[in-house]
Amino acid sequence: MSNGKKLELRLAGSGGQGLVLGGIILAEAAILYDNKNAVNTQSYGPEARGGASKSEVIISEDEIDFPKCEEIDILLSLNQKSLDKYITDLKKGGILILDRDLCPNPPEGNEYETFRIPFTNLARTELGKVYVANIVALGAIAGLTDCVSRAALEKAVAARVPAGTEELNVKALAIGYREAAVARVDHPVDTDALS
Amino acid sequence: MSGPKFKSGLRLMSGNEAVAEAALYAGCRFFAGYPITPSTEIAEVLSKRLPQVGGFFLQMEDEIASMAATLGASLAGAKSMTATSGPGFSLKQENIGYGCIAEIPCVVVNVQRGGPSTGIPTGPMQGDIMQARWGTHGDHPVIVLYPDGVEDAFWETIRAFNLAERYRTPVILLTDEVIGHMRERMFLPKPGTVSIYNRRKPRRIPEKYYPYQGGTQDVPTMAPYGEGYRFHVTGLFHDRTGFPTNEPAEIDAEMRRLLRKISRAYNDIVKWEELFMDDAEEVIVAFGCTARSARAAVKRLRARDRKVGLFRLKTVWPFPERALIKIAKRAHVKKMLVPEMNNGQVLFEVERVAGRYCDVEGLQRLDSEMITPRQIIRALREN
Q: Is CATH 3.30.70.20 the right assignment for the domain spanning B273-382?
């Protein structure tokens, strides 16, 4: 991300997929370890699980006034319902990162830079824990977009996840980075063009 | 303040977390509450933090009981707070009035959500502006503050406690779901570097202490129960001893002193923030989360050479009418726009104060979504 630019990210899925925590981790990485400014907001329904929930993060070198996303640069969706509901705010040419298996119907055409990665399946098969799919996704987002540095993200993940699960989560993060690197070979991303 | 229990430095914090932490910095050592979205994190944080600093956390059976416990703790000498949201704020009102007439310092936080009734539990609105002013019955003095971000929430919470202690009155801190739940950078100060005001205690011997004698500033000194002072506290109109009175002259004097004690302190209580106001032709009057949208709109319009300024209420009540009149009278000020997430509660106040001197327009949103900078820019273009 270049100086002075503002990056808007939205993490969407159903309640319980860990996206509120994902937003906190990204904002913390930016503020505490990358020395940038960030704001994190969330929106959810009255239900504790299910539904469509979203967490938004704005990262900038400058002061952030309006705390919600207006023109989203990066949208992560971990289920089809959230993808359908929230894609409208993704700007043209924005980066769309989807759970390949849980979002079976991605948008057609070339309006977005779309990446389809099986986050949940990777978490299940490689780590035996579905619940770290959110951390795999964070690794992929950062690997694809450089929205926060890897060192910052690793520190932020280790500081926020439950004690005793740090190693598991750092592994999950590494899987995300690996998948992003593979995807970028086939599909280069111009990170300077973001925002 | 016990040092090691406070960790200063840079943090990512939510508005609710900042309010809870700031209360501890201000010296709050008692919280009673009943959980309700979107305020619950304040209780959650304090349930953990208060015992760490030698304080007391109490989950009560309902909202009015929480308010009663908050008042009781304050009478016993503790700085106390309760926190709630819309429906819970309604339920606290009777005892808020008790706190006003019995002159009991405390802080009541209302993290606004959509109303009326159960309304929209998880979404923001700004519909409690008038309830904060008039929610409890009868004429009564009130102080209401409304921050616009996490850092501001921290400092305004401390100011709320200081004002409560200085003027012996409940202070209402309004926020909203956006401010309560958004997380941003917060630099926690070193403990001991924050300026704190503590209520004045009587110097007289107990036999000559009058708990409701106003003194020079109309604010009586306050003796904590348990230090040898015996006095009566009631929600009835009372004389200087605290015992009920039916004497018209005493009722009149008590009511006028109560109102005067806040109105004469206007300059100390009423704060606001100005941005690009020096040559502004159009002024956006905003507060809380909507002020964030207004700030973004003002900066974008200034980049296009539009002479737009922001007047942000930090104190909502008493209303900053003297400041607004002065601005409205400026020759270059043509219009005021009041964006708010309610049906025009502050618009009516601005019309009352500034309507004679410039145009006043409203911009209302009632769907529990934030007013966007674009909406504000569009409203200024259309008007």
A: no
